[in-house]
Design a protein that fits this description.
Blueprint (H helix, E strand, L loop, with lengths): L3 E6 L6 H14 L6 E6 L5 H8 L5 E4 L16 H6 L4 E4 L2 H6 L4 H13 L3 E6 L3 H5 L3 H16 L8 E4 L13 H18 L1 H6 L1 E5 L7 H5 L6 E4 L6 H14 L1
Parallel strand pairs: 1-2, 1-8, 2-3, 3-4, 4-5, 5-6, 6-7, 7-8
Helix pairs in contact: 1-2, 1-11, 5-7, 7-8
The structure holds 2-phosphoglycolic acid.
């Protein structure tokens, strides 16, 4: 049993006051189910205050990004060891916003993925195609390149301690969710790539779906055999909306 992971990616949203209120709601209502792990990924400045909220609860803490470098003269960067220090368990790498808007190549993403593993945290590797790429039949090619770059640099065994998030770019923040069937097709394809290298690792790795997941579509997505939870943006900013998604996973687990 892989279990579900329901992860909130807050992106660059919130304030000390709003995050305090959001966390109070999430902690109060997070499902108590061994089959579901709830994760929140706040902006960097709030990691420590959110760490205080999650202490003693079953909710995990994660970061949205990390430096590929270990330490030293990299002004403005944050090392993986620092994220571990403040209580993170997971780190998102390769989100499409960082690839498209902040110039992250698959090679940089692969370095970040390994930097996270090197300090014994779990990377959540985001992959996914744009609408133009889907419409021109390139979805699998994009996955091949984005996943393949990490696979060839870190090796398949690295995925025993990693999570993958399939996030079609056209579904992020647009309200256009991939259908459960469209998502399942790509999730199966991703798992098959790993299967070719290690059946054991492929069977164990969680593959999350991200892109306009809401309380009313989560169940359909999460009931597919290769969908092991969600990476939630907009709907993770309100505790009731986020908890409805976590509850959908708890019902299925
Ligand atoms: P969304 O974002 O749920 O707002 O579509 C998902 C993500 O970008 O991780």
């Amino acid at each position: 049993m892989r279990g579900y992971l329901v992860a909130g990616n807050w992106k660059m949203n919130g304030s000390a006051a709003s995050i305090d209120a959001l966390m109070t709601g999430i902690i109060a209502g997070a499902p108590v189910s061994s089959g579901v792990e709830v994760l929140v990924c706040p902006p960097f400045p709030y990691l420590s205050s959110v760490a205080a909220h999650v202490a003693g609860s079953s909710v995990a803490l994660g970061a949205q990004n990390v430096s590929q470098y270990k330490s030293g003269a990299f002004t403005g960067e944050t090392a993986a060891s620092m994220l571990r220090d403040v209580g993170c368990k997971y780190v998102i790498v390769g989100h499409s916003e960082r690839r498209a808007l902040l110039g992250e190549t698959s090679e940089i993403v692969a370095e970040k993925f390994q930097a996270v593993l090197d300090v014994s945290l779990q990377p959540i590797l985001c992959v996914g195609e744009t609408l133009a790429q889907r419409e021109s039949g390139q979805t699998q090619l994009v996955i091949d390149e984005q996943l393949g770059t990490v696979l060839s640099s870190s090796g398949v065994d690295a995925f025993a301690n990693a999570v993958i998030a399939y996030e079609p770019v056209w579904a992020i923040g647009t309200g256009m969710t991939a259908s459960p069937e469209q998502a399942q097709d790509v999730h199966r394809y991703i798992r098959a790539i790993l299967e070719a290298a290690s059946e054991t690792v492929a069977a164990g790795v969680k593959i999350l779906y991200g892109g306009s997941v809401k309380g009313d579509n989560a169940s359909g997505l999460f009931s597919k055999p290769d969908i092991d939870g969600g990476l939630i943006g907009g709907a993770s900013l309100k505790s009731a909306d986020f908890l409805a998604i976590a509850a959908a996973a708890a019902t299925l687990s």
